[in-house]
């Protein structure tokens, strides 16, 4: 589906690592952003890029970074993005938002409220699809 993602897998560990490298985080964001395009969404493809990372960290990235940047695409009557978000735009949009939160107490409060209500309400089904696909992708990797 999306050939712009190079596989950056976490290091093998007994338990998923709570942190990821900046490159891994970038690739996770790009993979998750595909859940917001106006075409058939390959949730299993997305999930295969998320396997091995801590689910709570993935959930945090989804709700506080990717969804706020991308959910507007699926809210418009005629979504402008069909094939995938521009990686540079996505990275800049997320980083600007994170910097604004670091710089402003008010922005943190507004974003916390929006993410806890509006974004969560409109994106919870997408996250549920990702989790379901992640379960399947992890099961595929289990030795028989």
Automatic annotation (TrEMBL):
A Pfam family of this chain: DUF7079
InterPro entries named in the record: DUF7079
Disordered, as annotated region: 1-24
Domain DUF7079, first and last residues per copy: 23-131
Originating organism: Pseudomonas donghuensis
Name of the protein this chain belongs to: DUF7079 domain-containing protein
